[in-house]
Amino acid sequence: MAHPWHEVPVGPDSPEVFQAVIEIPQGCKVKYELDKETGMLRVDRMLYSSVVYPANYGFIPQTYADDFDPLDVLVLAQEAVDPLSILRARPIGMMSMVDDEQEDAKIICIHIDDPAFNNYWHIKDLPEHRLRELKRFFQDYKALEDKSVRVQDFFGPERARRVISEAVGHYDEEIRPTLDNDDEE
User: Fold this and answer.
1) Which of 49, 97, 144, 166 lies at a 20 to 30 A Cα distance from 13?
2) 45: annotated binding-site residue?
3) Phi then psi for 76, rounded to 5 degrees?
4) So where does substrate get bound (predicted)?
5) What pLDDT, on the 0 to 100 scale, is given for residue 81?
């Protein structure tokens, strides 16, 4: 089985368009998380709060973010997508947050093969209520676990593309050399 973090390419048009791997379908209350060693999905927990993921949630392959994980994405689409599905996404913005005292950027993107969302280019194009839902979810989803999450601000697609490029660079510097060493053994 291919490892979704290391063997799925980010795509030749990154950061404008990239591949995203979905871990959690929108509307789900189960917190699935990529097991970095095996590449399989692990059930991390059931969300303690009475909330569900407001978008398909996953990561950009071959990226390495400030929280020592692949870069997180929220993919807006009209339907829930099965875990470990790969889809094409375009960033329209980013939500900056601090989770357990670590920077934790969330790239907000659209599924470009979904006709209900493929005409959105900037988070300002979204209804204000949709942004409020995204923010509120992350403010609330760990509240009953007594963990602190601070949603800081929303940024446009330019900042999102910069963060994606930096995360691809960090992967190439920090992770890829360790994979190459494993192949030589």
Assistant:
1) 97
2) yes
3) -80, 130
4) 31, 45, 57, 141
5) 97
DSSP 167: H
Residue 135 assigned to a binding site: no
Bridge partners of residue 99, in order along the sequence = 102, 149
Phi/psi-derived region of residue 100, left when phi > 0, alpha when psi is between -120 and 50, beta in every other case: left
Nearest Cα neighbor of 62 from 109, 3, 107 is 3
The pLDDT assigned to 182 comes to 60
Task: Please state, in angstroms and rounded to a whole number, the distance separating the CA atoms of residues 170 and 112.
Answer: 26
- Is 141 annotated as belonging to a binding site? yes
pLDDT value of residue 124: 96
Is 67 one of the annotated binding-site residues? yes
Domains (range + CATH), the chain: 18-183 (3.90.80.10)
What pLDDT is recorded for position 111? Answer: 98
115/72 Cα distance (integer angstroms): 23
Q: How far apart are alpha carbons 3 and 12 in whole angstroms? A: 19
176 assigned to a ligand binding site: no
Does residue 125 contact residue 92 with C-beta atoms inside 8 Å? yes
Contact between 109 and 156 under an 8 Å Cβ cutoff? The reply is no
Looking at residue 31, its amino acid is K
Under 8 Å between Cβ of 8 and 1: no
pLDDT of 103 reads 80
Please tell me whether 90 is known to bind a ligand. Answer: no
